[in-house]
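Entry, Tuesday afternoon. Goal for today is a structural model of the target with thiamine diphosphate bound, before we commit to ordering more compound. Inputs were pasted exactly as handed over by J.K., no edits. I checked the ligand SMILES twice against the vendor sheet because last time a stereocentre got dropped in transcription.
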Amino acid sequence: MSKEKQKTGQQLQEIENQEWRESLDYVLKEQGAERVLEILRQLQIRAQEQGVSIPFTANTPYINTIPRKQQSVPPGNREIERRIKSIVRWNAMAMVVRANRESAGIGGHISTYASAATLWEVGFNHFWRGRTDDFIGDMVYFQGHAAPGVYARAFLEGRLTEQDLINFRRELDPKGGLSSYPHPYLMKDFWEFPTVSMGLTALSAIYQARFNHYLVDRGLRKSSGRKVWAMLGDGEMDEPESLGAITLASREQLDNLIFVINCNLQRLDGPVRGNGKIIQELEAAFRGAGWNVIKVIWSEDWDPLLEADDSGKLVKRMDEVLDGEMQRYTASSGEYVRKDFFGRYPELLELVKGYSDEQLGAFKRGGHDPVKVYAAYKAAVEHKGTPTVILAQTIKGYGLGETGEGKNITHSQKKLNEDELKEFRTRFNIPISDDQIAAAPFYKPADDSPEMKYLKQRRKELGGSLPKRFSGSQPMACQTDWLVKEYLGGSGERELATTMAFVHLLAKLLRDDEVGKLIVPIVPDEARTFGMEALFRQAGIYSHVGQLYEPIDKGSLLFYNEKKTGAILEEGLSEAGSMASFIAAGSSYSTNQVQTIPFYTFYSMFGFQRVGDLIWQACDSRARGFLIGATAGRTTLAGEGLQHQDGHSHVLALTPTKVKAYDPAFAYELALIVQDGLNRMYCHQEDLIYYLTVTNETYLMPAMPKEKGVREGVIKGLYRFRKSGLKGKQARIHLFGSGAILNEVIKAQTLLEEDYDVATDVWSVTSYKELYQDAIEVDRWNLLNPGKKPRKPYLAQVLEKEEGVFVAASDYMKVLPAALAKWLPGPIHCLGTDGFGRSDSRERLRDFFEVDQRYIALAALYQWADRDGGSMKVVQQALKDFDIDPEKLNPHQD
Ligand SMILES: Cc1ncc(C[n+]2csc(CCOP(=O)(O)OP(=O)(O)O)c2C)c(N)n1
Ligand SMILES: [Mg+2]
């Protein structure tokens, strides 16, 4: 085809395109959007019938979702708001710069808040409502490393002093300081939600919004219209947890939830999607998941161009430009933008011919335009039926000019020199003179200035300052003896597992008139494994829409009973989601003023190991509740093998200090521990989490021994369960046992006494962690109080009069008892289950891991021979008696 002909072909196509567009405009004008959609549907069907395959796209064009014509107009004074924003920007920047001058390497981030400032200020001035007597307030999750922006605003609002800002990231300063990131644990009256572990915010916010519905559906709170806002980063969305629960949010119709994703197109190292478009990628994911997606890509500057874009080339160019290129335009001149962006098509050059290079270079992104942002927020809060995500395009390091704007290094930039400070000051018009500028002083206008009056008035009208964390809900009664009484007498002839005892106790709590309604059982698709299905009927499985189908097992007693007032959060296969629910329920005493009591029951292997960071976050959130690690114990969970058998969660549970960790053996221990947890967390209002491992091995549950101190010992971690049965002899051997392994220890006692005639005492260790924490605290006190009468750890007090040797056996790693060696009156040998699990029977597993009665007795005889006058000959004989092969596989290595 000749060039000439090709050209006419193209021209004809152009004319055709133009005609179709004009027809659409006409229909839209005359008959409205519905009619346009109908015609498009008809055309789609027609094309498909004729064999034109239509590629799937979940995307809309790369333009703002809300066209100018449909934008709501922001109320208020735009100019004053701009000035306030500039001052907050300045102070946020100055606090990082000054902190790093004071102490190089102290860290902090300037460029993240710089990109988010408009997104946040529109929220602060118009949308985010504080808590008042009449309204519970909105919940706002602030992007963690943009915290300086929140501090800088709190400074203007008079909530923080200049000294506080000076001490940003220097919390240990005698004058106090501000924590690097949002940590309720460290600033308990200020931050509500910890957010800086990337990925957990989106997840937590979704489950929080769902929990807010749950409280209303269960009649624990009145519907209030409160919203949950999650302010997120675009890089952060790469964390699997960020997108992992978005279908739950739409399924649950969480129109109380709004995500605002600050798409500055960059993360720490460089572009989020240099070769693609993060906004389009996220749009497709969220639209696919059923969310309402609002894109805020371009500022008002672009509106006239878009409206004059008759050729459609501008939208085409916007669609094809890569994020990597957009980032480059940030740092380029207007001349370059004209050439590279608009120059791609002659129609575009024509379109912008009336604009100077300077004007083109200054065209803003949507996320920096308060009018566009306001319109998006307004539409989001008014939207019904699904959650909303706002995808706002911004520039990372906005306002940092040559030094940082859009540069790949900008995330880590913490210092500005004098010239850079001057430039920043001038750009944002901060009244600081040249001779003061070097010190980067904070700036606060006078109290009677229009800015301060406006800012305070806005917050007053919106219900006061935010973020603000509240504490103090109605404490529960401490009198809980009714709960434990029946477990103290043992199970008689009936064999029970600790899991069964726990479920029994939970059912009892749920039935109670006082606390029953506050109990929140949480389970990730394992209720049947734990024998919890009886609770389905009793408490119901929570479902916002009730049960719309007749369950297949309706006729059975334990049918799958979904209902709107159901108490159980059956989270399906999501341990991370379940933990997010745990946090929402566990911190509800503060966030909702309703003290709910979560019992999250899970496969113990998939607890601390799988969702350790969320447990850490739960502590940071000051959440309270019970974590129940079921099917626990490396050798007690038979058959399941390597990736199911947990022999180390108690080691991991050592890490968060606010977690109390127990490995109870018997029903009365379990009941007393739960009682203690209820008292301390819900009556005395202590911010603790109780972790209990329970197992599925059934055995007779004994009655609680009558001796003094047993109750206390159960809670403090150790008590004598059974004294030696040998008349007139004092025990030379002391066996420590925990969880299901305590039974092996008891059998070993019989072996040692009957076959070897060595007096042996059995001790139940319910918590190595409790004993350890108490001991190190006492050690510390003694160290800091030389010359005073030394204190004794509980462990040493209880064992004060004991002599001989010690052997500890548990279903967990040996390091747990080994950590106590220093405070014991005699040597200890530790048996435990270091290594990878195997699928086999309990008996074989306990032989393999060397924690059965034979190994316990052998270790005791060895210790006794080695350190306390026993004989090695006896040990050699025992090895034979017990049929133990010294060459057997080493479970720690094989
Ligand atoms: C789980 C986790 N990994 C790493 C980090 C360190 N980190 C903090 S911010 C950040 C980059 C975030 O990029 P983005 O979400 O796009 O935020 P922006 O600063 O661009 O707004 C990284 C890697 C973290 N806080 N959490
Ligand atoms: Mg980013």
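The radius of gyration is 33 Å.
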